[in-house]
Design a protein that fits this description.
By secondary structure, the protein is mostly helical. The protein is built from four helices and no strands. The longest helix is centred in the first third of the chain and has 16 residues. The mean pLDDT is 93.
Length: 73
């Protein structure tokens, strides 16, 4: 996604963490040291995917296209 947005990876991760915090109250940065994604609890992954998809869609990017290119599906 970072390459499609022409942004540094750190900014995209930051956007995801902000979206999780403001939309769902999931403060991964408050749980420990980077990489913060390791602090996602099992029941929070659905919200991570929803947040990721929302960021993609707000930037006119297909979430499934990103996941396919990352070999996640």
């Amino acid at each position: 996604m970072a390459s499609k947005l022409h942004k540094q990876f750190a900014f995209v991760w930051s956007d995801l963490y902000k979206e999780l915090y403001y939309s769902y109250g999931i403060g991964l940065k408050m749980r420990g040291e980077p990489p913060y994604i390791k602090y996602v609890q099992e029941d929070e992954w659905e919200k991570v995917i929803q947040s990721f998809s929302a960021i993609c869609e707000s930037n006119n990017i297909s979430p499934s296209e990103i996941m396919k290119s990352a070999k996640m599906i």
